[in-house]
Amino acid sequence: MVALAKVERQDADSLLEKGHKKMDEKKVREAIEVIKGYRRLDEYMNNTERLPYCDMAIEALEKQLPKKVDVWANGTQHCPVCDKDLTYTGFHICPECYQRLCYTK
Known about the structure:
By secondary structure, the protein is mainly alpha-helical. The protein has 4 helices and 4 strands; from the N terminus they run ααααββββ. It is elongated and about 50 Å long.
């Protein structure tokens, strides 16, 4: 937990300067599939102790995959996960649920 708090205090630019690399979409999808495999194995072995942690990891990784911003009939832009109004923000991460966003025209 201490390591996570330490990383959260640093901004993304400083992490990249220190040699940390961004995970590309392919690596994120591969990591999700690996965790899902472990989850299926745990279910098969009736080991329910780690299942909630696998679910949390999958959910966190899926938030790294950009989702297209919803544009409603009145022209407002909303997060596809939590429906937060993003019309005037231009954020690439939802400030409400932290989903990575993709704006396409």
